[in-house]
Design brief:
It catalyses: Endohydrolysis of (1->4)-beta-D-xylosidic linkages in xylans. Keywords: Carbohydrate metabolism, Glycosidase, Hydrolase, Polysaccharide degradation, Signal, Xylan degradation. This is Beta-xylanase. Its EC number is 3.2.1.8. It is built from 15 helices and ten strands. The protein is α/β, with parallel strands linked by helices. The chain has a single domain, classed as Glycosidases (TIM Barrel), CATH 3.20.20.80. It has an eight-stranded parallel β-barrel with strand order 1-2-3-4-5-6-8-9, surrounded by five helices. Strand 5, helix 11 and strand 6 form a beta-alpha-beta unit. The chain starts with 5 loop residues before the first helix and ends with a helix. It binds ligand 9MR. The site of ligand 9MR has 11 residues, from loops.
Length: 366
């Protein structure tokens, strides 16, 4: 059986701490001050981050972060053992014209990751957003569209064959009512069966990559989670190569702690799938002056650890990714003007309580 005994180990560790009246493992532990998120983490859990670039960054008053910000790269290498291109593998970025691919930025991330012993999460192949104009506004027959998707998947997944830990094959395919999103060009034009084909093609192009369904708004049970569970059951029954289900976990302190995430992930673990947290951040309403209160930072730390503990408690939750690690490059203030401070580090990479809380929780679970 693939299941590990991580949950049992965590329970024993907690019991041992209680019995000797010890405090939870503090920052440092066996590695002194040098301990990082990746060094603190249990061996069977990847700790990742989005790698900033493309998307909203293009309109910001700073140079492209990943290639240009040395301190950013150093922290990225030091703290994480998994990397997710934030935009650099999305269609509009990597396939800007029908007959032209732009692989440079994605290649650079994959190379960096290899150099620093990091896994890569590929993001993403079938999505309704960030598609190039040539695709969204073009006129194609169904057969042409199908072959465009197939070719794209074989080209992109094939290029990084053997170097990608997990692919978000299908991203955000259901709306809040659990219905297939009609703004998704593939689903609208080709029908929902195209989702299974995307998984089959990705698997043919890279048989070792773990292939995921990925979405937000699945942190609590509800119709969207039900839709994913039904789809996952169907795909597995049809022997489609589906390997995982991921919760993005873009949290806001407006909506409460993700205290049911463990039970959601467990439902997919029970189907024999891997699970993952792929895009965690915790935004908050900023007080006047823009600086969060101590209380807000404490609540934020709690949301982060509740999410991590959900993953740690589920046997085959094998990847835990933050959607960026510094507020300097976060997407949040650009999309939610009243909210911010969503990551675990300030603009100057100083660590917030959430960072230390995550590191301590990882060390305690080891
Ligand atoms: O962080 C990404 C940002 O730079 C882009 O401008 C934005 C455009 O949609 O996408 C952001 O990333 C999204 C991710 O790809 C899918 N889940 C939601 C993320 C936040 O919007």
């Amino acid at each position: 059986m693939r299941k590990t005994t991580r949950a049992a180990v965590a329970v024993l560790a907690a019991a041992a701490l209680l019995s000797i009246g010890a405090q939870p493992v503090q920052a440092g532990g066996a590695h002194g001050k040098k301990q990082t998120l990746r060094s603190a983490a249990p061996r069977d859990l990847r700790i990742g981050t989005a790698v900033a670039g493309g998307g909203h960054h293009v309109d910001q008053p700073y140079p492209d972060p990943f290639p240009n910000d040395k301190q950013y790269r150093a922290v990225l290498a030091h703290e994480f053992n998994s990397a997710s291109p934030e935009n650099q593998m999305k269609w509009e970025f990597i396939h800007p014209e029908r007959d032209r691919y732009n692989f440079g930025p994605a290649d650079a991330i994959v190379k960096f990751a290899r150099k620093h012993g990091q896994a890569v999460r590929g993001h993403t192949l079938l999505w309704h957003s960030q598609n190039p104009a040539w695709l969204e506004q073009g006129t194609f027959t169904k057969a042409e569209l199908r072959s465009i998707l197939k070719k794209h998947i074989f080209t992109v997944v094939g290029r990084y064959r053997g170097q990608i830990h997990q692919w978000d094959v299908a991203n955000e395919i259901f709306d809040g009512n659990g219905a297939y999103r009609q703004e998704n060009i593939w689903i609208r034009e080709l029908g929902p069966e195209i989702v299974a084909d995307a998984f089959r093609w990705a698997h043919q192009a890279d048989p070792k990559a773990q292939l995921f369904l990925n979405d937000y708004g699945v942190e609590w049970p509800g119709v969207k989670v039900d839709a994913y569970e039904a789809l996952a059951r169907q795909l597995l029954a049809d022997r489609v190569p589906l390997h995982g289900f991921a919760s993005q976990a873009h949290l806001s302190m407006r909506y409460g702690a993700p205290d049911q995430l463990q039970s959601v992930l467990q439902r997919f673990d029970d189907l024999g799938l891997y699970t993952a947290v792929t895009e965690l951040d915790v935004r908050m309403d900023l007080p006047e002056g823009g600086v969060p209160t101590e209380e807000q930072l404490a609540t934020q730390a709690r949301y982060y650890t509740t999410t991590l503990n959900a993953c740690l408690a589920v046997d085959d939750c094998n990847s835990f990714t933050l959607w960026g690690f510094t507020d300097k490059y976060s997407w949040v203030p650009v999309f939610f003007p009243a909210e911010g401070a969503a990551t675990v580090m300030w603009d100057d990479f100083g660590r917030k309580p959430a960072y230390y809380a995550l590191r301590d929780a990882l060390a305690a679970a080891r």
